[in-house]
């Protein structure tokens, strides 16, 4: 099976974008990831992951409306593309199939 | 109160972050900052902000988004070719302008190169000698009654002292006689040449380029080294080595070497032979007698120092070389003689004069350098003026180029390439001008400058020069022309605003100020020379020959020479005198007269003459009479000049007794006559008190003066005189000088300054007029429509001419007003140098200003009348 390679961090960012459902942007994503994974993430990492994902065609972005909170600067809002969704599903399927073949002692619910 | 993220970090982010990413990145960063302020406090949030910003310092965020349009290349070959094509077309289209532009710039560049070569020649003086950096002359500084004096002549014992006690500091110490004229005889050929007797190491120290023989040539005490030109003159094309010849008809020497003639920019340039110092010593008893005499300064000592040391250190060491040896000579100790080294590199540009370093040579270098730069600047100003004046014509081109996609950078490079093309053409033209004028300039400046074809630095300098001139001339037009807005110029709106005209006016005023100042200076210099030339000299120079009696062959021959010469009928009188007519060779004090005051210690010119001297040179008597052979008492008679009479304060000096203590003896004289002052030395200085006498107190006459019969032409007279000389003194070459020519030579320096000033003034006014011409045509073009309408409404040609000329006349008047005080200040300062001087009269300023106005009107009128004569129908129709 051939698909575009997705790094571990990219995968997490992509998942986070999917979770946030159209409202995802840099800082929010960073906070979300920090909260969920409890690891230190820096803003530039998030931004570059988003750029790579966009180049790979897994997310698309558009500029949001200007708001007061950041000095009138607009946010770039990301949402997952169909290709991104399919990739996420594929990853999950691959992992699930591995989990199913794992010895029952180690088996717990996914 | 809201906290702000660190501003510097924000600026930095704005600087490096790609514009299309900046908004989101900065927004996120700010949002995060606010969040962190809540969480960890402002201070730490600011640190974090910095850290986050630096995190974005990655190629990913720095790289700019590629434009959707193709990029324009600043230097594409096709475009460059196009620029040059357009440039050449433009040059060919406006031949008149191109001529003014290229010609003016070429003249400016030629002058700049010439003055550059001149300055280079001055700075490289004496560098022909390889050991240039380590050669020096031993000098003595003495203080006599508060007056400091520097002497290049040193005493014999000092030379000995240096050799015995300080030899280890020096590589060579070369003692030498003064340079002097000597008769060189080889077979039938005899010539008078300047030479010096030097010690054997001299050729090595001066690194003479030997054609025959080698540097050890002076080791044999009866040897001589001669210059190539002297060898050619004496021996023709035969091998000069080991040829036997004579110096002054008595010293037998053998040629042991021939050296290449020294260049004009070496101080030893006129030394045509070198003979051993010992030969000179053995020939002159008085030199041997002076071996321990600390009073007699008559030697030159040249040294080459060891490479490990420097002049200052050695000067310090040898400072007291004289003082510690003259313990018992009180008068010398009182003068506190300090021995020091005067390095060769300073000989030419920093010579000593009247107890101080003479600033004139360095001033001259600065002056010529600055004038050269100014003339070039004037030419560049013209280029700028003419290019911007033609901007109207190029405006549409700029508009179209911009409309089809040129960016300003391209247009700038276009106009730069255009100006570089012009500068390059001008440079070639300047080089041609240089080739043609170099000889003439060498005559003018008494130099032997050649173009250093093989010198890499010269060519590098030329390249740099082209580059700088191109920048200077091209930068303003290129930035100005390329800044036009395409919409305006294509619509035909006048792009040249009022203010574009102001700098040009300033430039014209600047140019004319320089020109007028130079013209005034030239007039003043010429008037000063003329003033000094018209000064009554007190004797008759015309038809007067003089001739040095350098050989013993003359002794006892005076009477027979006189009779024989007078018998030829072409000579009216001859006399002998001490020194030449154009020089006072002897000055002495020790004269006493009735009523002399103790403070009168001025020295007198003291000259021995023969009886007929007055008749020969044409003394003009104020009182008394000339020497006469009829009075036996005249052998102790004395003739004084008016200056002496005035200085002595004698109302009726005739018959007064003057006593003169010379060395151990005292001589007594009776005044028999007073003559008008004779200008024998500088024509700018007052004549010193002088006395003339027959008794040879301080030496015998050594020059012969011959007055040619005024009714005979020189061409007839000279062969007859020469025949007499051949008969009576056959061993001496008939080498004569004309007194009037020698006298005129005294004005050479000033005449040279005058000629140089004329040269620069003419160029400056020429270049300024070119500029004015360009500017006038620009104005006329600008106002074509206005003139048309005025004519339709009834203006006359004269009225329009007046309208167009008025502005320029005002500018030139301003220039004149500025240059009058400037030139007055400088020329008055220059004249102060001369005791006998003219004044800076006011009419000079008037005449110059009127002249400048006249030239301006001529230049401007051509364009003004041309514009005024245009048929208004045509000028109003033009669109």
Count of individual beta strands of chain B: 27
Whole-number total of structural domains of chain A: 1
Task: Give the overall silhouette of chain B.
Answer: globular
Examine the coordinates and then state which fold CATH places here, giving the name of the CATH topology of chain A.
Answer: Arc Repressor Mutant, subunit A
| Structural class label of chain A | mainly alpha
The biggest beta sheet of chain A reads: 2 strands, antiparallel
Please list the strands of the largest sheet of chain A in the order they lie side by side: 1-2
Approximate shape of chain A: elongated
- Cα end-to-end separation of chain A: 23 Å
Strand content of chain B: 15-25%
Multimerization status: heterodimer
SS element count, helices of chain A: 4
Describe the structure in brief.
With 110 residues, chain A is mainly alpha-helical. In chain A, 54% of the residues lie in helices and 9% in strands.
What does this molecule look like?
- The complex is a heterodimer of chains A (110) and B (879).
- Chain A has helices at 8-20, 26-37, 43-56, 82-101; strands spanning 59-63, 76-80.
- Chain A has 110 residues and is mainly alpha-helical.
- Chain A has a single domain (8-106), classed as Winged helix-like DNA-binding domain superfamily/Winged helix DNA-binding domain (Arc Repressor Mutant, subunit A, Orthogonal Bundle).
- Chain A has a two-stranded antiparallel ribbon.
- The longest helix of chain A has 20 residues, at 82-101.
- Chain B has five domains: 7-62; 79-125 and 358-496, no CATH class; 132-347, no CATH class; 497-537 and 739-879, no CATH class; 544-738, no CATH class.
- Chain B has 30 helices and 27 strands.
- The longest helix of chain B is centred in the middle third of the chain and has 38 residues, at 408-445.
- Chain B is globular, with a radius of gyration of 38 Å.
- The relative contact order of chain B is 0.09.
- The model of chain B has no long low-confidence stretch (mean pLDDT 86).
- Chain A binds chain B through residues 25-27, 30-31, 42-45, 47-48, 51, 63, 69-71, 73-76, and chain B through 23-32, 34-35, 52, 55-56, 58, 60-61.
